[in-house]
Write a structure and sequence with these properties.
- It is built from 15 helices and no strands.
- It is mainly alpha-helical.
- It has one domain.
- It is globular, with a radius of gyration of 22 Å.
- The two termini are 34 Å apart.
Length: 376
């Protein structure tokens, strides 16, 4: 088990805030940072995913051949894909079961789920191909696609590092100018998180994680970046508090360059997320010094992010259903939050216990042949 670090801490922080933000109307959802910024934990999570991928590529995977690197990163993408498939089916089962238990058939329409029950054949094809997604369960498909892009990103960086950012920016602005997005099916529409736009944040996280290039420049100019980021963050506060967004009719073409659009990660929310990273990045040692237990807890969540994210998503859906059935009060909301974060922590602890048990078994398997050889 690795020691608590900044990436794991902020990833754990993002997981907790995603859990809270995915229970609309929750009392404590109102104090999460997306209420005072033009970005939220989805942006932070994707940025950190790119950062973590750079650490892997320059760490244990640095000496792998191109083919082995593709297999290593592709295996991770397949694991995420499997998690998305299981998670979505569990969410559908929760909605179906609660619609029966609560005698509330309209729960079958929640979060775009109705196609599963009205058109199950085509809907399940859509679930497998990721063209059909439930509301509040659509960030993991984005992550799946970005992880499938990871081998290409890693190979471009290995052989032509100075091309990576220009190519990413070109794809980002092409999407904003053309409005291109992946279609959904069988329900008409497009992806809530456009992976061809969000890849820019993933790539920026990848590049900023390095000690050279863009990451090295950012570390040398951390004070300057914080000075530039502070007014950006402050300006965003009243817009977020007032829930203001520009009127698309009054905007010039291409409108996506000026809108506060989450689907396409328009420049304003992108700059907001980068400003928050510049302001709070590097503060982990101070946080660890003053609230060590909380920092270690968040880092534990972050170390086991996939398992925690999956259980957190189901807990958020459970919280939504609970508030529908019993109403939302401060006391019951507090119980939901304590219970939910407690279960997320328990899942992280069990995941680490299992990993440690497997590691000890692996060490024992290695030591047995050695002992037999010396005895012989």
């Amino acid at each position: 088990m690795r020691a608590a670090n900044e990436v794991d801490f902020w990833r754990g922080f993002a997981l907790v805030t995603i859990f809270l933000n995915h229970i609309p109307g929750l009392t404590f959802e109102r104090v999460t940072f997306h209420n005072a910024a033009l970005s939220d934990s989805a942006e932070l999570f994707v940025f950190l995913a790119g950062w973590a991928m750079r650490l892997l590529v320059q760490g244990s995977a640095s000496k792998l051949s191109p083919a082995a690197l593709v297999v290593r990163l592709g295996g991770r993408a397949l694991s995420l894909y499997a998690a998305q498939a299981v998670l979505t089916e569990l969410a559908i089962a929760m909605l179906a079961a609660c619609s029966i238990l609560l005698d509330a058939p309209f729960l079958l329409d929640w979060h775009n789920a109705s196609a599963v029950f009205l058109d199950p054949i085509r809907a399940h094809i859509g679930l497998v191909t990721l063209t059909y997604q439930l509301g509040y369960f659509n960030i993991l498909p984005l992550y799946v696609v970005l992880t499938f892009m990871a081998p290409g990103i890693a190979l471009i960086f290995r052989y032509a590092p100075y091309l990576l950012l220009p190519l990413s920016l070109a794809a980002y602005f092409a999407v904003l100018i053309t409005g291109f997005n992946l279609p959904t099916w069988p329900v008409e529409g497009t992806w809530f998180f456009n992976p061809f736009a969000w890849q820019i944040l993933y790539v920026l996280g990848f590049l900023f994680a390095g000690r050279d290039g863009l990451g090295g420049w950012a570390r040398r100019n951390r004070k300057l970046l914080r000075m530039l980021a502070l007014p950006v963050a402050i300006i965003g506060v009243p817009f977020a508090l007032l829930d203001y967004a520009p009127d698309p009719i009054s905007l010039p073409e291409p409108k996506l360059l000026f809108m506060f659009d989450k689907t396409y990660l328009s420049p304003v929310p992108l700059l907001s997320s980068l400003a928050l990273v510049a302001l709070f990045g590097g503060l982990f040692p101070r946080i660890m010094q003053h609230v060590q237990s909380l920092a270690r807890f968040f880092a534990m969540l972050g170390r086991n992010s996939l398992n925690v994210f999956c259980i957190g998503s189901l807990l958020s859906l459970g919280g939504q259903i609970f508030r529908f059935a019993f109403g939302g009060r401060v006391a019951t909301d507090a119980i939901l939050v304590i219970l939910g974060i407690g279960i997320m922590g328990w899942v992280a602890w069990v995941s680490e216990w299992r990993n440690q048990l497997q590691a000890r078994r692996g060490e024992a398997a290695v030591s047995l042949p050695a002992s037999a050889s010396s005895a012989g």
